[in-house]
């Protein structure tokens, strides 16, 4: 396979110009397009005004876009080298949030850095995938079959998951575990092991239920039967379903959603923004936005398939799965398919941290594409550089 | 190469599993699409309805209540503007400061102050809180002038029922009051806070017509209930005005005249059509007190008053008619063939078995025929004829004249009184009829009970020989702006004219014959003379000891044990138009107390001659002149 070697030697020292050229601009355009939909919805949520949400979100997106491109251009081997370091920094932040975090939305999630409010659990979503991608990059096909080799990555998952669950943030915990699971799966971990973990997980449900906070239990119960408590915890989900259902095929028209504009819809600028879109633009609008996300996810999966190094593959598939989980959990939650767990709709919902996490993640995916032919040996990058 | 081999193996596994993962994600996305289809297409109509229910709030608009007018269009019950001072929290920066400023403009009690602060905290920021009700015009202007210093304060206009004639018309009109649990019929109007319905009298009788039909306002509201805009409005139908047969001027006169007594009732009727021109009961009450809401003390005061001001004695007070009943006995006797020339010797009493029945005149009247029996009100004459014909014949005649059953006036609460028969006594008291009781009944005492309205109806029927039925309502305004009042047609009672003539002559003699019992109370004005009959009904039995001692002068007895004084009459005597019945509770003698009152009332009635003046017709409203 001479071509492969030649391309490898060609890519070990890419110039900045070559890198910029090889950025997947179609994907960047798609990201901007999705954000534009978000901007329009935040404009509508502000009753036809860029204040208070749309304008501030646009500024954040501008910053995020720069950050994303910067991340994309940084040599992937650098990310490889600092994977564990970043993971431990994120873990440290998670511990720190336990100690000094301020209480927001009934749970300890934020670190107030005065300039920005940092949500370490979001940072961890990216760092965990980085660390796992690096770990599995270094494990041979034979070793992956050995259960002992799974102890370290399982610990990598367990530590942040436990901390995030303790905050408590059920949604993020589920996302961490599932994105990590996708990395395990694609790294070649035997399927029967997933079966064991799945069975153990089911067995743990009764124990887990005991550990849940009252409000979490209430949300799950409400999810089971929202009509029983239409003025209490069921109110949000009922109103969201009314907004969505009343949108019909083509929606009520931009700025004309009665549920959203008369404040029946809760959190319309954040977690429930999809229902507002579906109310104003109907099923056509809802499926349209989902189509854009699917395209973005297809880009991610295609990039993972195209990468010539296991680190890049696992990183891209993990981050793409992470994006999928955001979209799926958010939409399923506002449509009453799963309990309300507080997961925003990426690039659309108002809020800084989640947007930055997603864009850094997408930057890394683009970086995998830019460095798709970079060779990373099983034992690491140092000897190759 | 081992590593390359390793990587290619990894890559294959990866590609397979990544595609598998992608397939899983596609599957999950398709469940989202399916859910979206279910919610937005299949269940769309349901959710559209729910969204509309959320958005649209139906507000019931109360229609203005119809007025009540007298026969000439004089307002008896109207709606008055009620100015309310309200405060909206979100329009003022400092509620307490605004209240302080308000306190310096109009009087505000400490109690009001605290109540407003409490309510303002409890209610949403945009909901107006009533600071004070029933503002005077002066207070309204003061607040308007100082509006700049009173942010958040504004004046709202409501309507409240008002009765210009106050207590003079209270028993006929009744009153409106807050809706109670029992009154709920499903009409949404009744569930409006502050809505009033008729609870008594005409207000109750015609409540549905006066109430009108609700209007509706469809409002767009947000999740917190704030009104965003009005989507549509339907004004409903205002209540219709009711026109009564009452003459407010005459009513005022009669009420005033009765005030000379502690407790009395009077009915004045037009005998041609049954129109009740005046219906009075003394003492009365203030009808607006019920609209405002009575305190427990006020209520107990009204309930426990032994003069029972809340009872409309004209229709719900039952009294022994006394000698006013004698015309009935006379007609029954005539019908049974006891002719006018039949004479009875009255020695002052009559013996039946072991009992002795006294005439009101101790010395007796000597030989008395029918005319004399009525003219002098000789009891012995009626004892004699009653003994001959029996109580059941008397009762049958009494029933024909409207006694013993409700006459059917359009006013709630009418009582039926009692006309005893043998069967009645057995059924209601459980004892057989005694012969002596026939004699007592013949002079309108004992079991016999009647209301003033029944006596007035009886008098109208006596005067005309027609089956006159009284009425209080002439009609209602209709959409065309007029009222149609059918002139009622009454059938003949079937009493021979000769019999009626005999009774008329005797009643004429009562007032216009020098020896008649009410000669002193005659109307002297030529052409206005009245005919009538006195009545004095005992409320106790005079004991033998009292009779022996001679202590049965009314003035010597405590009020509650004095006789009731009655008089029934009609005028003018030869071409009757008006009938009147008066009862003065514990008033003493019919000729001394009741007859002069009837004289005054019938004189005033003929002076005003309400039947001779064209009654009120609704005018189609002139342009620009809303009513």
CATH class of the largest domain in chain B: Alpha Beta
Helix-strand category of chain A: mainly alpha
Number of strands of chain B: 20
Count helical runs of chain B.
Answer: 22
Question: Which residues of chain A sit in consecutive blocks of at least 5 with pLDDT less than 50?
Answer: 1-11
* CATH topology term of the largest domain in chain B: Beta-lactamase
CATH architecture of the largest domain in chain B: 3-Layer(aba) Sandwich
Distance between the termini of chain A: 22 Å
Q: What order do the helices and strands come in, and which of them pair?
A:
The complex is a heterodimer of chains A (385) and B (627).
Chain A: H1 2-11, H2 16-22, H3 25-45, H4 54-73, H5 76-81, H6 83-100, E1 102-104, E2 107-112, E3 117-118, H7 120-137, H8 141-144, H9 151-166, H10 170-187, H11 191-211, H12 214-224, H13 234-247, H14 258-261, H15 273-306, H16 310-334, H17 353-370
Antiparallel strand pairs in A: 1-2, 2-3
Helix pairs in contact in A: 3-4, 3-15, 4-17, 6-7, 6-9, 7-9, 7-10, 7-16, 7-17, 9-10, 10-16, 13-15, 15-16, 15-17, 16-17
Chain B: H1 2-42, H2 44-55, E1 56-61, E2 68-69, E3 75-87, H3 95-105, H4 110-122, E4 129-135, H5 137-145, E5 153-162, H6 170-173, E6 176-178, E7 196-198, H7 201-205, H8 207-211, E8 215-221, E9 227-234, E10 242-244, H9 248-258, E11 264-270, E12 276-282, H10 288-292, H11 296-304, H12 313-316, H13 326-335, E13 344-346, E14 349-352, E15 355-358, E16 366-368, H14 370-375, H15 379-389, H16 391-400, H17 422-428, H18 435-442, H19 452-464, E17 473-476, H20 497-512, E18 531-537, H21 544-549, E19 564-571, E20 578-584, H22 590-608
Helix pairs in contact in B: 9-22, 13-15, 13-16, 15-18
């Amino acid at each position: 396979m001479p071509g492969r070697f030649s391309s490898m030697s060609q890519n070990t020292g890419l110039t900045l110009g070559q890198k910029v050229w090889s950025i997947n601009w179609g994907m960047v355009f798609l990201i901007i397009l999705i954000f534009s939909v978000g901007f329009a919805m935040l404009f509508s949520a502000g009753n036809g005004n860029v204040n208070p949400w749309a304008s501030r979100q646009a500024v954040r997106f501008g910053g995020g876009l720069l950050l994303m491109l910067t991340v994309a251009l940084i040599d992937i081997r650098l990310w490889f080298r600092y994977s564990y370091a970043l993971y431990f920094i994120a873990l440290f932040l998670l511990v720190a949030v336990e100690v000094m975090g301020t209480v927001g939305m009934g749970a300890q999630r934020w670190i107030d850095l005065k300039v920005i409010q940092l949500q370490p659990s979001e940072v961890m979503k990216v760092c965990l995938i980085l660390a796992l991608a690096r770990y599995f990059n270094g494990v041979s096909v034979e070793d992956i079959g050995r259960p002992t080799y799974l102890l370290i990555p399982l610990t990598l998952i367990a530590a942040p998951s436990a901390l995030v669950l303790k905050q408590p943030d059920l949604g993020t915990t589920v996302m961490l575990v599932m994105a990590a699971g996708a990395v395990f799966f694609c790294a070649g971990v035997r399927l029967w092991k997933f079966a064991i973990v799945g069975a153990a997980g089911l067995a743990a449900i009764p124990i887990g239920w005991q550990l849940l906070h009252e409000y979490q239990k209430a949300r799950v119960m409400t999810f089971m039967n929202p009509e029983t408590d239409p003025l209490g915890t069921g109110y949000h989900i009922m109103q969201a379903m009314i907004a969505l259902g009343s949108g019909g095929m083509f929606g009520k028209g931009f700025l004309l959603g009665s549920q959203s504009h008369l404040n029946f819809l809760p959190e319309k600028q954040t977690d429930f923004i999809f229902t507002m879109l579906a109310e104003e633009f109907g099923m056509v609008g809802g499926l349209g936005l989902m189509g854009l996300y699917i395209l973005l996810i297809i880009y991610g999966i295609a990039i993972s398939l195209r990468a010539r190094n296991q680190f890049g593959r696992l990183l891209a598939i993990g981050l793409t799965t992470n994006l999928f989980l955001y979209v799926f959990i958010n939409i399923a939650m506002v449509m009453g398919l799963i309990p309300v767990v507080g997961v925003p709709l990426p690039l659309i919902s108002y809020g800084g941290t989640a947007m930055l996490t997603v864009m850094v993640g997408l930057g890394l995916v683009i970086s995998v594409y830019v460095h798709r032919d970079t060779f990373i040996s099983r034992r690491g990058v140092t000897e190759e550089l | 190469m081992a590593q390359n081999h390793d990587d290619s193996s990894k890559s294959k596994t990866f590609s397979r599993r990544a595609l598998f993962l992608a397939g899983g994600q596609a599957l999950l996305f398709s469940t989202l699409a399916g859910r979206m289809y279910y919610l937005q297409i299949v269940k769309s109509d349901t959710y559209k309805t729910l969204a509309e229910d959320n958005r649209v709030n139906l507000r019931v608009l109360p229609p203005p209540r119809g007025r009540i007018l007298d026969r000439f269009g004089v307002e008896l019950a109207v709606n008055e503007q009620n100015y309310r001072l309200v405060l909206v929290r979100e329009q003022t920066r400092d509620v307490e400061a605004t209240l302080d400023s308000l306190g310096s403009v109009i009087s505000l009690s400490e109690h009001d102050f605290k109540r407003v602060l409490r309510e303002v905290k409890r209610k949403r920021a945009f909901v107006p809180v009533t600071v004070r009700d029933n503002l005077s015009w002066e207070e309204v202007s003061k607040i308007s002038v100082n509006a700049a210093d009173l942010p958040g304060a504004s004046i709202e206009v409501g309507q409240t029922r008002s009765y210009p004639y106050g207590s003079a018309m209270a028993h006929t009109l009744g009153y409106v009051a807050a809706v109670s649990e029992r009154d709920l019929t499903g009409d949404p109007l009744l569930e409006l806070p502050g809505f009033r319905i008729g609870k008594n009298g005409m207000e109750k009788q015609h409540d549905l017509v006066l109430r009108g039909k609700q209007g509706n306002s469809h409002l767009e509201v947000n999740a917190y209930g704030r009104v965003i805009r009005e989507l549509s409005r339907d004004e409903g139908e205002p209540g219709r005005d009711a026109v009564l047969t009452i003459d407010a001027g005459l009513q005022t006169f009669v009420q005033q005249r009765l005030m000379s007594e502690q407790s009395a009732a009077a009915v004045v009727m037009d005998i041609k059509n049954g129109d009740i021109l005046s219906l009075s009961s003394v003492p009365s009450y203030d009808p607006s007190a019920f609209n405002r809401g009575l305190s427990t003390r006020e209520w107990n005061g009204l309930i426990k008053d032994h003069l029972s001001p809340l009872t409309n004695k004209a229709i719900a007070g039952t009294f022994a008619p006394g000698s006013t009943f004698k015309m009935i006995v006379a007609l029954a006797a005539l019908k049974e063939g006891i002719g006018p020339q039949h004479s009875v010797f009255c020695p002052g009493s009559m013996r039946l078995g072991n009992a002795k029945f006294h005439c009101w005149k101790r010395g007796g009247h000597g030989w008395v025929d029918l005319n004399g029996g009525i003219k002098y009100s000789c009891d012995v004459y009626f004892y004699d004829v009653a003994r001959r014909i029996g109580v059941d014949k008397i009762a049958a005649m009494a029933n024909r004249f409207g006694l013993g059953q409700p006459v059917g006036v359009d006013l709630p609460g009418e009582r039926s009184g009692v006309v005893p028969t043998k069967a009645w006594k057995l059924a209601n008291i459980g004892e057989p009829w005694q012969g002596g009781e026939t004699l007592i009944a013949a002079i309108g005492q004992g079991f016999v009970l009647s209301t003033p309205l029944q006596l007035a109806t009886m008098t109208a029927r006596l005067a005309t020989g027609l089956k006159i039925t009284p009425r209080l309502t002439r009609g209602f305004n209709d959409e065309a702006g007029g009222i149609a009042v059918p002139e009622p047609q009454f059938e003949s009672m079937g009493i021979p004219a000769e019999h009626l003539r005999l009774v008329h002559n005797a009643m004429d003699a009562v007032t216009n014959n020098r020896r008649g019992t009410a000669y002193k109370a005659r109307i002297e004005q030529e052409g206005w003379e009245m005919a009538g009959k006195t009545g004095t009904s005992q409320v106790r039995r005079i004991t033998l000891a009292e009779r022996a001692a001679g202590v049965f002068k009314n003035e010597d007895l405590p009020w509650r044990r004095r006789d009731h004084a009655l008089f029934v009459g009609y005028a003018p005597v030869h071409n009757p138009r008006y009938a009147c019945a008066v009862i003065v509770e514990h008033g003493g003698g019919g000729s001394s107390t009741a007859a002069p009152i009837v004289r005054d009332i019938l004189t005033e009635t003929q002076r005003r001659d309400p039947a001779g003046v064209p009654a009120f017709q609704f005018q189609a409203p002139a342009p620009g002149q809303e009513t």
